């Protein structure tokens, strides 16, 4: 294999991620010629409607996956949080790169934090996950729909004279807007989306040569964290956008998994956590069977956490939200 075709969306952040993956591969296999192929997705074409109203899984991935399955590209680079919790037939994760800080941030022209925002402040976000948690934390805030890339949202914030916008730290940092951040929001206040801050590389399931190439850039810690989070989401997920959040963190030889399901208006929030022990040598899981067993362990913990939230009452919230789309 001399040319490796890498598929991606065309946004600045997506291009950054694609180039990041390309650099990581090139550093280990400089003989490869990596070609970046830009593919437009449905989510890129519909910019004036909140994502929750579109109600479609794979908004930012399906067209890229179709190109992958058609063998017109060799791998696809995504923001992990855009990937459906269950991949399509014939597809698999090939690698997950080292994670950026997964938290959300507040960008405010006045330098506010969530605590110092004035009564009735106007905040821009289109994420149901963020909206539900913000309403639970600060029910006085006025929340307005805000979509687009990082630059677009910052521009709209100033044009519409908003008091702030909520974004993911990873995208803000990767596009060079760290100096605009007013607050990195603690996970105790807003729990991030599943996979937030992680870059995922998707491949054809049976493509052994590409899988072998990607093995060298895979980050074991991030793979374990996102495996737990995606298992949590898969256990809960229905057919619509819902306020679900989950964050797994590897610390020493443990994984702490925190999960949340909230009502759309923030009136009910179901939140819990679980901690599991890992093999002492988890960073060096080179034996395939040992690594697979460890991944199964964290997935089961994520599923168990989701099941406990369902038993506590989160299932009723999810059913009510699904009913709104019928």
From TrEMBL:
Protein name: Porphobilinogen deaminase
GO BP annotations listed: protoporphyrinogen IX biosynthetic process
HAMAP family attached to this UniProt entry: Porphobil_deam
CDD domains in alphabetical order: PBP2_EcHMBS_like (cd13646)
EC number: 2.5.1.61
Reactions that this protein is recorded to catalyse: 4 porphobilinogen + H2O = hydroxymethylbilane + 4 NH4(+)
Stretches assigned to the Porphobilinogen deaminase N-terminal domain: 4-209
Domain Porphobilinogen deaminase C-terminal: 223-274
Subunit structure: Monomer.
């Amino acid at each position: 294999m001399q040319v490796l075709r890498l598929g991606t969306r065309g946004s600045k952040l997506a291009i950054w991620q694609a180039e990041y993956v390309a650099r990581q591969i090139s550093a280990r296999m400089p003989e490869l010629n990596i070609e970046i192929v830009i593919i437009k997705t449905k989510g890129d074409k519909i910019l004036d409607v909140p994502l929750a109203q579109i109600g479609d899984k794979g908004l930012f991935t399906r067209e890229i996956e179709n190109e992958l399955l058609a063998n017109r590209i060799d791998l696809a680079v995504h923001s992990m949080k855009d990937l459906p919790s269950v991949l399509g037939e014939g597809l698999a994760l090939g690698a997950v790169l080292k994670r950026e800080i997964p938290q959300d941030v507040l960008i405010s022209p006045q330098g506010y934090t969530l605590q110092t925002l004035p009564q009735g402040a106007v905040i821009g976000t289109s994420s149901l996950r963020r909206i539900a948690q913000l309403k639970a934390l600060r029910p006085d805030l006025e929340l307005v729909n805000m979509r687009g890339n990082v630059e677009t949202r910052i521009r709209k914030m100033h044009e519409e004279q908003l008091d702030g916008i909520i974004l993911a730290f990873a995208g803000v940092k990767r596009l060079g807007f760290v100096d605009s951040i007013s607050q990195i929001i603690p996970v105790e206040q807003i729990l991030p989306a599943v996979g937030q801050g992680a870059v995922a590389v998707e491949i054809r399931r049976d493509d052994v040569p590409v899988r072998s190439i990607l093995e060298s850039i895979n980050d074991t810690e991030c793979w374990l964290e996102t495996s737990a989070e995606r298992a949590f989401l898969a256990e809960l997920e229905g057919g619509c956008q819902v306020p679900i959040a989950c964050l797994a963190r590897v610390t020493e030889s443990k994984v702490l998994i925190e999960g949340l399901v909230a009502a759309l208006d923030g009136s009910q929030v179901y939140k819990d956590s679980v901690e599991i022990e890992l093999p002492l040598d988890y960073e060096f899981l080179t034996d395939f069977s040992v690594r697979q067993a460890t991944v199964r362990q964290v997935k089961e913990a994520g599923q168990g956490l989701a099941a406990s939230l369902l038993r506590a009452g989160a299932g009723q919230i999810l059913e009510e939200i699904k009913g709104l789309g019928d």
